[in-house]
Amino acid sequence: MTISDEALLQAGFALPDGDAPIRDGDDAITQNARAAAAADAELGRRIATVAAATMQPIDAAASGLYQYGSNWRGLPMPTPADMPAILTGLGAVLNGDERLLVACDAPAAGTFETGTNWRGRPVGGGVSAVAVNAAVDRVRYGLARDLLQAKARRLHARTSPRAQVALVVDDYPAATLQLVLPLLAARNIPCSWALNGNAFDPGYSYARFSAGASWADIRALDPSRVEIVNHGASHADVRDVDALEAEILGSRARLRAETGQAILGWLPPGCDYPEGIRYKTAPLITDEEVYLGSEFARLVLGGHAWAGGTQRRPGDGGVITHPLDGRPVTLAGRQWLDYPDDAGVKPGGIGDRHVAAAIERGHGTILSLHACYLDGGGAPRRVTRAGFEGFLDRLAARRDAGDLDLVLLSQWHHTRITTS
Fold it and tell me: Do 230 and 252 contact (CB within 8 A), yes or no?
């Protein structure tokens, strides 16, 4: 594209020959220098304008090729077909050059974004605004995940020749602090605690089970013995996709602020979420493709170093153990211990079978319970104190015999079990 002499004169430039006009007493060189400085300033203004609002929406009524353009000020033209005439009127000789027009090849009906950068080169085109935003978010959450995983490896990466057993308690701050943690501490057994970000807020789903406890109690815990895990903000069903970020990432931020811990991992509560992500209502989520395609998974996997998910119960095919190679086991299932009549903790019961299988296979297993179901926990009793203490004693004995390691969940996920 070239600019005519007439257009240069109109812009304030003098022609470089003997017939150049003298304006305001300046010769051609001085005049051109001033005009160039003014043009540089104008170019800077145009660049700033385009940088601030370069993307323009195209509402495609159907699939097809759509064109959009910008005028010499970088502002959008309502009718792209008028662009050549307008540029020609400014003195531009196009010679068929349409670099200022951008083609958007819309694959289907919808709203797409396109535009030009400050050099007049096309950006975007054929990509919906939703897809652009999702791509940006993928980068953002991908970077967060990478940093968290690097931190988790730095803190917890280890090797061991033994089976790895992680004990997890869910929710119920008062009973966990008063009943479970002292029993574990007496046997030097670490645990991970899946806790809600709103656990001490008015209106919390299980507020009566938080009475008598506070964030100060949680903050006083030794993170090398009790690891706090993100369990969502509210422990309530979420029906709106737009509410997921506050429920998942907002909870993690709150837990970090209140506890001072890193909050590396995620364990879902027994609740239902949009897009078929169900942990309460049958059928529970089992299809990993459905899971991975959801906003829920994007926030969970992008905002944590590791994430649990799928749950299997006794009777659905076997004992839950996992081979561990030092990399997080995404969606690792865990086994509950708090079944009625001490079924999970009695000698030879569910818990003992999982421990024995992990040792035999050289695997890891995750065992979980709710403190409210212990004697005095505030809910109808499922597990006696004597039964639970007996299970912990057997667990500690196998650790002391060198059969297994008792670890935090972040350690569990980052342990490579070595075999002879």
Answer: yes
